[in-house]
Amino acid sequence: MNRPETDPHFEYLLRLGDSSLILGQRLAEWCGKAPILEEELALMNIGLDLIGQARLLLSHAGQVEGRGRDEDRLAFFRDVQEWRNLLLVEQENGDFAKTMARQFLFDTFQGLQYRELAASADSTLAEIAVKSLKEAEYHQRHSRNWMLRMGDGTEESHTRLQKALDELWGYVPELFEMDEVDQAMIAAGIGIDTNALRAEWDSRVREVLSEATLTVPDVGWAVSGSRKGQHTEHLGYLLAEMQFLPRAYPDARW
Amino acid sequence: MAPLSQATEQERIREILTMVKDPEIPVLSIQDMGILQSVQVTAGNAVQVSIIPTYSGCPAMDVIREEIKTVLLLHGYGDVCVKTILSPAWSSDLITAHGRRKLQEFGIAPPAGKSSDQTGEGPDVACPYCQSTDTRLVSQFGSTACKALYKCNNCLEPFDYFKCV
Ligand SMILES: [Zn+2]
């Protein structure tokens, strides 16, 4: 579908909300399968926080858009090209090491992002950011601990975690990319200069990797495209599962 | 019955609302939790209750919203609107002294310290059973978003700790 020119404000909120929602959905896939009970609880709690953030962000996006779409409409009735989540968060769970590596890279980013968004001229967004910042920092404490524990753990856990980082590293540059939507939102005082967060993110991540005896990957490839709705093949499968029920039974209530 | 003044009316509603408990910690009312922010009554007896959500994805919030409406309806308030406000953000500092005592009696260690001075290191958490502070964190996450899992090194009992956020 060829979408008409969209409002950058709406687009910006969609990006934030979509990343939280898709990662929340990914974590929910661990339900009943986590390696230990404590981690089952942790992954579900983190996923719920993220889905809660997504609800706030998407319902705000729907209001800004003004076309009558609420959070559910946005979550369940958009096709893959209309999604704006970062490619990193749609990557498959893989093993526990990969899930935690993805989480750590994202948590560290999201904490910085919310810290800056707390000063947004969009007061609703600023309020959501203040509230969610606490959650993001708590999540990061957890994923950081696992990086240290697995990286500096057994040979098996170290190898798996290093492999996971190598697989995910090519999705990192996209976190800090900026396009005309970002520029418009910075100019309006609503958005933040994401690129300016790169140095701080790098130093935080590198510090943990080095303490965990892990190597900063040098993979020589990077992909992006989520801002234009270009995704990896994994997102379609995730959406098919997440959206099945409301699409099969539109307007069903329970 | 003579109409109550607005202030009295608000007091009465607040009193009724003490019946609304946090479904995940049924000994705590929404006042104890610091979830109830304000109560407003208009001349036409329309009530607006403002609540502060705890965690973004906490499913208890939907239940609480419904409970507020139901309890007030049973007391004759048919026109009730529950508004969720995000600012000021909820923090465990909002839990009242009464609420903290109730938590303790229920076997949940109340939040230790102030949310603002969390350094990332585990605080001294006292065991709700034997009061010993010789305890250790088992997991940062517990059965609900607001709790972490601890174990007492003194009496060896595991217990829930209400996270300080
Ligand atoms: Zn004890």
Automatic annotation (TrEMBL), chain B:
Annotated MIP18 family-like domain residues: 11-76
Pfam family for this entry, one: FeS_assembly_P
SUPFAM superfamilies with a match to the protein in the record: Fe-S cluster assembly (FSCA) domain-like (SSF117916)
Domain PaaD zinc beta ribbon as annotated: residue spans: 114-163
InterPro entries recorded: Fe-S_Maturation_MIP18 (IPR052339), FSCA_dom_sf (IPR034904), MIP18-like (IPR002744), PaaD-like (IPR011883), Zn_ribbon_PaaD (IPR056572)
PANTHER family per the UniProt record, alphabetical: 1,2-PHENYLACETYL-COA EPOXIDASE, SUBUNIT D-RELATED, FE-S PROTEIN MATURATION AUXILIARY FACTOR YITW
Protein's name according to its UniProt entry: Phenylacetic acid degradation protein
Name of the gene encoding the protein in the UniProt record: paaD_1
